[in-house]
Amino acid sequence: MNFNLNQWYSEKIDEDAIFDYMGRIEDEDVTNILESIEQILQDRNESPKLFKKIFNVLVELVQNLHHHGEVPSDFDVSYEKFGVLILRDEGTQYRICAGNFIKVDGLRLIRDRIDQINTLSSTETQSLYRIILGNDQFSEKGGGGLGMVDIARKSGNNMEYQFFEYNPNFLFLAIDVII
Amino acid sequence: MNSLIIEGSPKTPNINFDGNEGSFLISGRSIPENSLDFYKPIIEWLDAYISEPKETTTVNIRLEYFNTSSSKCLLDVFKKLEVIFKRGQKVGINWYYEADDEDMLEAGEDYQSIIKIPFTMIEEEE
Questions:
Q1: Are A143 and A77 within 8 A, CB to CB?
Q2: Which residue from A49, A130, A142 is facing B69, i.e. has the nearest CB?
Q3: Between chains, do A56 and B100 touch, taking CB under 8 Å as contact?
Q4: Nearest CA to CA, how far is A7 from chain B (Å)?
Q5: Which segments in chain B show pLDDT lower than 70?
Q6: What is the value of pTM for the model shown?
Q7: Structural domain count of chain A
Q8: Which of A34, A96, B20, B55 is most deeply packed, by most CB within 10 A?
């Protein structure tokens, strides 16, 4: 096995990490994660503008985990949605790291999507958002591909991502968003 | 016409659609995991309203946050009301946003660019 999740996770949790979660991402977990982070940001007296940006991006990232966080067959847990979320205060910026397993055949779609969004200017991101919003093509999960565009738009920064080979069928995808 | 009232929760908005007055309010947060389930009864209620609308319909949107899954559902709400606007009824949307919340202002402008109903952008103090 090439990728050690626990090692990767522990290396992310240093003194800059102000919130970290690894585990089940069912409805109630999404609620608990968002409430916890909201409380942390309130306690830090973060400016309303930055607070809202962070919260908006978090909502999309956590709900992405809820909708797409797979559990590999050899992963010894009793639930079906798994994800990792870490919020870091790096002094001049916040970094949100979201990680989940994906099936190997989903790699190209996600990679192309992020690469495409990362090439866009802020005006182009806004235009793409409006096109997707207005085109009536939404997935059963409701997002219609708007989530990633919204994250890019609200953060104003490129998304950084890494894929790690977990086993022949699954990859671990880690996305970093800087705000 | 009856009214539609749904109390808000930490993830779903307050809905207060007064069918007699033609005055509609959506406020709070709209960040459910499955927005389609939440908005389905609202769309159904609007289907009944637009068959017998008031002469003037005013929509007030006072949202703190909404997720992208809700954004499509909000568009569906506006599209329902656009039907009666195109028939010649008066419809207006007041889009409230907190001062400095450029993202919420831009979100209103996104809808304004897609929907023909007149929007009024209203800035509020935090």
A1: no
A2: A142
A3: no
A4: 30
A5: none
A6: 0.91
A7: 1
A8: A96
* ipTM for the assembly: 0.91
| pLDDT for residue A1 | 57
Of the partner residues B10, B68, B73, the one whose CB lies closest to the CB of residue A150: B68
Inter-chain CB proximity B113 and A27 less than 8 Å: no
Sequence letter at residue B24: F
Chain B residue numbers touching A129 (CB-CB < 8 A): 110
Nearest to A142 by CA among B95, B58, B43, B34: B34
- pLDDT tens-place string over residues A98-153: 999 999 998 998 999 999 999 999 999 999 999 999 887 655 455 567 899 999 99
Q: Measuring CA to CA, which residue among A29, A36, A25, A33 is closest to residue A65?
A: A25
Q: Alpha-carbon distance B2 to B17, whole Å?
A: 9
A98-to-A23, A84, A127, A140 alpha-carbon distances in Å? 12, 6, 26, 22
Which domains occur in chain B, in start order? 4-124 (3.30.750)
CB contact under 8 A, A154 and B103: yes
- Flag whether pLDDT at A83 surpasses 90: yes
Write down the pLDDT at residue B33: 87
The overall average pLDDT reported for chain A is 91
**What's A71's domain CATH number?**
3.30.565.10
Burial class (CB in 10 A: 0-12, 13-18, 19+), A86: buried
